Amino acid sequence: MRGAFLLGAFLFAASPAAGQAPKPLFASDETIRITIQGPISTLVNNRSSAHRQGTLTVGSETLPVTLSVRGLTRRSTETCRFPPLRVEFAVPPPPGSLFAGQRRLKLVTHCRGEAGFQQKVLLEYAAYRMYRQLTPLSLGIRLAQIDYRQADGRSYVQRLGFFLEDADDAAKRNGLKEIHAPELIPIATLSPRDAARYALFQHMIGNHDWAMRAGPKGDDCCHNSKLVGASGVAPRAVIPIPYDFDFSGLVDAPYATPPDELNIASVRQRVYRGYCIHNREAAAVAAQMRAARPQLVGTLWAIPELDETTRRRAANYLMGFFDQVATDAGVAAMLKRCL
Asked: What is the pLDDT of residue 7?
């Protein structure tokens, strides 16, 4: 009970001004059942940026959509036999639809057909839910049991996947707006508390595939991060929101490799990559995460599709983080490795 109280206090302290209510798709954690019909085999075999016509059916409602392949690593045929998709609604879904208010959605798919890859999808989904436990300044997710069908109605495959909330909607939900920035923003523009939470969460799940203030050369900011705020790129005002956790130690995807510059052998090894300028805030966030351990680890038990072996292995991995931050002295030792 005490941990739940502290987590609630943490959420209240971290919450921005009230914004819009979540749209229907992201207002529940109940798994939905949908059918996506279209030229699925063409999308799987041709990873171009072409848009293909299809439909999305939920319950008795069928919506016209366009489907396209997205992503970087998972888009490659060498990595994934089934690519991640983007679903765009050809016409706005009606007000009573589960998809009301949606225009373009990212769909995280199963990558490969083996049962183990379904567990990887669920672990990545769990990571998003854990971050949502810490702050509403996070992307909404919705798990879906998807029946993929060819254009002629023949079944192609049935697998779990999940939809990701658009960053602009996440910003509006928090009374903020999405920030589009150049490839590099100054450290001083980051909100210290939010940047510290971001870095500690990534450390908890063992993810090093991110940058909260820089994007790929020649591209916009930031790598596997979305930026939100109230007034653009201003001092201490930019809030980074993480996404894409498949390279984390928690998920431990077979294709995941750590960055060369970290000189570690496995993505399961943790290297703290927060900024030293945020160490005071990081120490406070670490104490709050420590108090919230039952809720964070308990997220794994809130996902019934996870098998027991996967769930316990993931819980043990998270406990490595909580052992590290079990005392203030342990937190101080971790923060000495800051950037």
From this structure: 45
